[in-house]
Amino acid sequence: MKRYLFKIKRLDPERKLSLRWEEFSVMMEQSERLLDGLIKIKEFIDGSLAFRRSCGHGICGSCAIKINGKSALACQTLARDLSGTVFIEPLPAMAVIKDLVVDMEPFFAKNEAVMPCLINDELLPDRERLQSPEDQHKILEAITCIMCGCCTSSCPSYWADKKYIGPAAILKAARFVLDSRDRAADERLEKIADTHGLWRCHSIYNCVEACPKGIDITGHISRLKRLALKKG
Amino acid sequence: MRYKLHTGSTAWLIHRITGVMLALFIFFHFYALSPKAPVRFESLITAMNHPVSSVLLLGLVISHGLLGLRLMLIDMGAGARIHKPLFWLAALSGILLFILGSMPIIGGLK
Question: Fewer CB atoms inside 10 Å of the end CB: C or N, chain B?
Answer without folding.
Answer: C
